[in-house]
Every structure is written in C-alpha cells, then in structure tokens.
C-alpha cells in the first residue's frame, strides 16, 4: 500500500483500538499499543514502516523522554536523592554484570556481544514507566517522582556504559558535550523568559516550538556524535522541570500532543519487532534472558526499596517497574547491530526480551501490586519525618 492517507488511517485506527481496549481493561495504553504492534506484525502482515512513521516514532521517544524528565520536581528529587541514586545505580549494575557474564561464559557470546547484551538488558524504560505513572495519576506523588528519578539514573548508567565501551571520542562528541552543557545551563532562564513575556495562551504556541527546536537541535548533534537523541531530551526536561512545576499549562499541552500523535507510533512500532515464530525457535534463551533480567532487578532493587521504608507491595511494584525495558534497550541493541558487534539473530533475541520486559513486569505490577495514590503520597511524608528524626538525634 503506497497511499499515505490510508497508511495513516490504518495506524491511527490501531492506536484508537488500543486506547479503547486500555480504557476497557484498565491497563496502560502504552502496553496495549505494543501488543497491537505485535498482532499487526505477526497476523496483519504489517512488517515495514515508512520514513514518516519512523520520524513520528522517533519524536515519540524523544518527547516522551523529555516529558519524563520534566515531571521530576527538583525539590522532590533533592528530598529523595539518596533513594533514587541507590535504587537507580544497583538497578543498572547488577543486571549489567550478570547478563554480561552469563552471555559470555554460558552462551559463548563474544565479549563485545556479551557487553551489548548486558547494556540492553540492564535498562529501565522511562517511556513505559512515565506512561504508567501519568495514566494512573501517580506522577505527582513523592514515590512516583522517586521512581522516575531512579529510572533516569539507571538509563544514564546504560548510556555511560555504551559511551565508555564503544563510543567514538572525536571532535563531534566534544562539540556535542560542550553545546549540551551550555544549553542545559541557560534553558531554565530562556524557558522562564518566554513564558513570562509571551504567556502560554498564544495561538501560535511559540514556547512549544522553542522546546521542540532545542530537542531537535541537540538530537541532531547527538546523532552526529554517534550518541543518542533521547539523552539530551531527558536532561533538558530535567533542567526545565522547576519551571514546569510552577506552570503546568505547557507540560499539559505537550503531553496531549505526545500521547495523541507521537507515542502511539513509537509503541506500536516497537511491537513490530517481536516475531512470534522466532520467539518459538529461540524460546529457551529468550526466557532465560528475561528471567535473568527480572531476577537481577529484584536482587538489586527490592532490598533497597524495603530499606527505604516501602512496604512489600510498594517494593514489589517499584522493582517490577524498574525491570521494564524499551527505549534504551532497543537503542543499545540497534547500536550493536549497526556497528556489527552483534548479528541479526542476537539482535532479534535481545529486542524480543526487551519488549517482553516492557509488557510482562508492567502487567504484573498493575494487576497485583498497584499502590493507592494516598499510599505513595504518604511514603513521602514518612521519608521526611524520618529525616527530621535523624537530624534531631544527631543534634
């Protein structure tokens, strides 16, 4: 089919079906969109995408990652910095080291292939976690913000590992880092100036265009430097979060745009990578990798969550969300394939595990361990009271 309008109608129809199913069954629309993509790729004969679908999917990952960063209240991040750092670091280190060693010494993969596997399966999906948090109205709670911050720490570890182990350190990389640091320093001031002088009620929406301009520009520099566009997107969201906390209009408007037109293409395209026949053929290694990822996440995250005064239900919920993977997992696997570090079969295995990890842990978390909003808010108050008591005892 080469009629662009009919292709667009077909994809938007699938997105609409996913939304209706999500509302009906009470499961995050992001997961339903992935499942719709799986069905489309395996039963409807949709095996290829167009350039404009790839572009919208790319925008979906970038804007969603930006919004995830923008949702983190700086005051809440500072208040829960210790918990976010501890959970985020161990959520990366334990799976990364475990998968690397098992892939190399049990499955016989080469060292670079095993390293790519470790990086791809150590990630946490900011996109999936953010979508779940927003849909369930948990993003404004202290625990929700802590989990999102921990996701960022984990994925920053994966990007750092990918950069240290495989990146090309050239002049473009230096230019990208310098420009990004400058932009991160001035972005809060520029964004506040635009909102203060122009407001957020102009029909032309200059503040939205400004944010998109910065995301596109830094994404282009990142791609030229052989890095990934989602990294500066998350950091930009993080530094302007303080501005967005005071003015929710801009972030609400961007969230509406993203969840309506961008993210459905991103999540449904991710589902197209899952080949059911290949899953059957490689079921053993896929299952083992998936189990390793989830088990190592529990080893790294669950005890820490309990030590930070979460109950068993909330600790399990946090651990399962940290076990999800999608954006950085598929990015890491694609990096390995494009640079001839892994072959097509290894790539398909890793991407399948990554996508299954976006679906299975989230479904379990939502169905069996979904916390109440008041519980997640109360956790923040409990943490603040504990810190005050510790301070008093020290005095």
Written account of the structure:
The chain has a single domain (51-274, 284-394), classed as Na+/H+ antiporter like fold (Up-down Bundle). Helices cover 82% and strands 0% of the residues. The chain has 19 helices and no strands. It has helices spanning 4-25, 29-43, 51-70, 74-79, 81-105, 111-120, 126-135, 142-166, 171-198, 206-224, 230-239, 241-246, 248-272, 276-281, 283-307, 312-322, 327-338, 344-368, 373-394. Helix 5 runs antiparallel to helix 6 (111-120), helix 9 (171-198) runs parallel beside helix 11 and helix 16 runs antiparallel to helix 18 (344-368). It is globular. The relative contact order is 0.16. The mean pLDDT is 84.
What is the residue-averaged pLDDT? 84
Question: Percent helix among the residues?
Answer: over 70%
Shape: globular
Largest sheet: none
Number of strands: 0
How much of the residues is beta strand, in percent?
under 5%
The overall number of domains is 1
The end-to-end span amounts to: 73 Å
pLDDT under 50 segments (min length 5)?
A: none
Q: Structural class from helices and strands?
A: mainly alpha
CATH first level: which class? Mainly Alpha
Tally of helical segments: 19
């Amino acid at each position: 089919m080469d009629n662009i309008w009919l292709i667009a109608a077909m994809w938007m129809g699938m997105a609409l079906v996913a939304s209706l199913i999500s509302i009906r069954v009470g499961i995050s629309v992001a997961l339903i969109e992935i499942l719709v993509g799986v069905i489309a790729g395996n039963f409807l004969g949709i095996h290829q995408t167009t350039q404009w679908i790839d572009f919208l999917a790319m925008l979906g990952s970038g804007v969603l990652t930006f919004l995830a960063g923008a949702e983190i209240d700086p005051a809440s991040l500072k208040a829960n910095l210790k918990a976010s750092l501890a959970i985020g670091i161990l959520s990366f280190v334990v799976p990364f080291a475990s998968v690397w060693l098992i892939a190399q010494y049990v499955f016989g993969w080469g060292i670079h292939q095993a390293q790519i596997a470790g990086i791809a399966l150590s990630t946490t999906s900011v996109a999936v976690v953010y979508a779940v948090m927003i849909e369930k109205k948990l993003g404004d709670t202290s625990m929700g913000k802590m989990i999102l911050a921990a996701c960022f720490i984990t994925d920053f570890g994966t990007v750092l590992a990918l950069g240290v182990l495989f990146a090309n350190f050239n002049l473009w990389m230096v230019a990208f880092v310098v420009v990004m640091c400058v932009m991160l320093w001035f972005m809060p001031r520029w964004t506040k100036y635009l909102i203060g002088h122009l407001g957020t009620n102009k029909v032309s929406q200059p503040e939205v265009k400004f944010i998109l301009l910065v995301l596109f520009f830094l994404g282009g520099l990142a791609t030229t430097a052989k890095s990934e566009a989602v990294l500066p997107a998350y950091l930009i969201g993080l530094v302007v979060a303080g501005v967005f906390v005071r003015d929710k209009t801009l972030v609400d408007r961007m969230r509406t745009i993203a969840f309506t037109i961008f993210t459905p293409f991103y999540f449904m395209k991710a589902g197209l990578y899952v080949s059911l026949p290949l899953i059957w053929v490689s079921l053993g290694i896929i299952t083992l990798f998936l189990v390793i990822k989830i088990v190592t996440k529990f080893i790294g995250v669950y005890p820490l969550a309990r030590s930070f005064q979460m109950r068993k239900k909330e600790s399990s919920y946090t651990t399962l969300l940290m076990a999800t993977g999608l954006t950085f997992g598929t990015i890491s696997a694609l990096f390995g394939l494009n640079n001839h570090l892994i072959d097509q079969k290894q790539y398909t295995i890793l991407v399948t595990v990554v996508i299954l990890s976006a679906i299975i842990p989230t479904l379990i978390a939502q169905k069996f361990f979904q916390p109440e909003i008041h519980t997640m808010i109360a956790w923040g108050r409990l943490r603040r009271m504990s810190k005050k008591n510790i301070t008093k005892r020290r005095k």
